[in-house]
Amino acid sequence: MIEVEDGATPSIRTVTIDRPAARNALTIEALEGLETAIENADESVVSLRGAGPAFCAGADLATVGDLEGDSERAAEFARLGQRVARAIEESPAVVVAEIDGPARGGGLELALACDVRVGTPESTYGEPGVTFGLFGAWGGTVRLPRVIGEGHALEFALSGRTVDAEEALRMGLISRLEDDPRAVVEQIASNADDALTALKRRIRDDRERATQERLEAEAFGTLVETHADDIDSVLE
């Protein structure tokens, strides 16, 4: 269900959700496989994509159906999805979502945990859970307002509507709109591994400002020392 390709391109691990017949909907097994693929990455960049014509339809509805009448098992399934999203968010690697086709529910929530979201013109986005009495519980209610603002998040989630790539870009749901998202992945991976890691850590840090600024200065000092030759080459 989860295919991992590493080593073909230096510094890039490609993680593919491979259930095209089910629009890459995620079962418990697939979520666990995705978590392992992210946590075992030692490359500086991870590309997350879906096989076939969809990015990810979210939680597998047959799996959700098996949880009916058991609130604790349902909550445990939600916690598993949250854990995978945290693994993406907290990975030392920069995680880029290559979104081609539909990203729905949990699929969109996992994309929201990624550091960069690149959509193609064919990509579409939605949180349809509210239309059948549910909502995204893989950290979506936390990340969605952070990414697009509370007003957009409330309207988008409460309506259950689907937006196209152009509107997603305007809302801030995606970072870039490209015919070939892989080009963005390769552009990011062309930069120094330690600089990428330091930048991600600093931008993701949500502690008080004084701590963030202190750690930012320390990381900058380390990079200046490490990349002295690179700096000299720019100055020449």
Automatic annotation (TrEMBL):
Record GO terms (molecular function): catalytic activity
Pfam families in the record: ECH_1
InterPro entries, sorted: ClpP/crotonase-like_dom_sf, Enoyl-CoA_hyd/isom_CS, Enoyl-CoA_hydra/iso
SUPFAM superfamilies per UniProt: ClpP/crotonase (SSF52096)
Example of a GO biological process term: fatty acid beta-oxidation
Family: Belongs to the enoyl-CoA hydratase/isomerase family.
Entry protein name: Enoyl-CoA hydratase
Organism from which the protein derives: Natronorubrum daqingense
